[in-house]
Design brief:
about 375 residues; alpha/beta; Rossmann fold; seven-stranded mixed beta sheet; five-stranded parallel beta sheet; 13 helices; 14 strands; about 45% helix; about 20% strand; binds phenylalanine
Length: about 375
């Protein structure tokens, strides 16, 4: 027992020094032989896998490019900061990336609420920001320097409404939304709108707050409404707990959700309660196309795990950034912005990416089924339009 504090201290030192090492030259502005990307993400907290998976994807893309000589003959350096899953921290670190580290471009965040909080900083300083996977429409509406390489939630909501009605033939839904999350509130609304339009019925719409651990009173109400499905557009930590408590209360309805479910932790937390649930996502690692399979192979070799969609979106966001820099006359922020805005038919791992006039990407979505062993099995692809 006596040794535990020592080991804990040692572990802290190791973890800490590796963080420092990663950002060794944070605060050192780019010299003329390099290009600096600033990344902000939830590396810790209840959405820690969002940040860590995205980071792995970004680093893989950057390291591959650096090995081939970099972009415009310059090496790319990435400075990464942890938002701890907090909006105020997102604002702080993006301000630091721009004003102290003087990054050329910002990559992040994953969660829409944090992108919405920090994007005004990037817009104010006119430094281009690309979110890999924030799907709420408001993110890119913040200004003309704010982009994303993913689809948006009006589409994602329609995907799950279509899937429930056309594929599952289930028409009676309860909605269980996280009222603290822009993503969750938006996706709940978009799903409801389309589901009703298609003849579905929403029997109940109840709320929780991200960070909650006891959902029994809301789930009891949901049970009384006798829905066929419960749409839970939340993040994996709460969704896992909700699944467990729903089954404990004897709720048998099919659970449905969105991309916020994408984490190995979903099954770790949800165990058998989450099996058979479905969620929409940006890509499937089972996609047989050579570009996806090549990415999966490389990623597995590097990190020893199958890349989830956060990793794939992070990878694509970095690729889009580097492609734009290549096409831009120079690193002037306005030119860089214009180059990102003119991205057309870029073949990414998550599909063909064209940035539209709203600075969003228009891409298909996949529906995945949660199966034993943390497996997210491919079910179908739903195209926009
Ligand atoms: N789309 C979610 C949001 O906007 C974030 C997310 C993307 C989570 C992809 C998981 C996978 O908040």
């Amino acid at each position: 027992m006596k040794h535990i504090p020592f080991f804990a201290g040692l572990l802290f030192l190791i973890v800490n020094s590796s963080c420092i090492k990663k950002n060794e030259r944070a605060g050192v502005p780019a010299d003329e032989n390099e290009i600096v990307f600033g990344e902000y993400g939830s590396m810790t907290g209840s959405e820690s896998t969002f940040g860590t998976s995205t980071h792995k994807g970004i680093m893989m893309a950057v390291e591959e490019a650096n090995k081939k000589g970099g972009v415009k003959g310059k090496q790319i350096r990435v400075i990464s900061y942890d938002t701890q899953g907090k909006s105020d921290e997102a604002v702080t670190v993006v301000t630091r990336l721009i004003t102290q580290d003087k990054v050329h471009l910002v990559l992040g965040e994953v969660a829409s609420s944090r992108s919405i909080a920090a994007a005004p900083v990037a817009q104010q300083y006119k430094v281009p920001m690309i979110s890999p996977s924030s799907t709420n429409p408001k993110v890119t509406q913040i200004g003309d320097y704010i982009f994303r390489v993913c689809f948006i939630d009006p589409f994602q909501g329609s995907v799950m409404a279509k899937f429930a009605i056309n594929n599952l033939n289930l028409k009676k839904a309860a909605i269980f939304r996280d009222i603290k999350s822009d993503y969750s509130v938006g996706l709940a609304n978009f799903f409801t709108e389309d589901f009703k339009k298609m003849g579905g019925q929403v029997v109940l719409d109840v709320a929780y707050s991200g960070g909650d651990v006891d959902f029994k009173s809301q789930l009891t109400k949901i049970k009384e409404g006798k829905p066929d499905i419960i749409f839970v557009p939340g993040y994996y930590t709460e969704v896992g707990i909700i699944a467990v408590q729903a089954r404990e209360l004897g709720l048998k309805a099919t659970l449905l959700g969105g991309d916020g479910w994408d984490s190995d932790k979903l099954s770790e937390i949800g165990q058998s309660a989450i099996l058979g649930a479905y969620f929409s996502n940006h890509y499937s690692a089972e996609d047989k196309s050579p570009i996806v399979q090549n990415f999966v192979t490389q990623y597995k070799a590097k990190y020893g795990e199958v890349p989830n969609s956060l990793a794939a979106q992070g990878y694509d966001a970095a690729l889009i950034a580097m492609d734009a820099i290549n096409r831009s006359a120079d690193l002037n922020p306005k030119n860089l912005r214009d180059a990102i805005a003119s991205t057309k038919n870029f073949q990414g791992v998550t599909g063909i990416i064209s940035i539209n006039e709203d600075r969003n990407a228009v891409k298909p979505a996949v529906v995945l089924k949660v199966e034993a062993g943390s497996k997210h099995t491919y079910v179908t692809t739903i195209n926009p339009g």
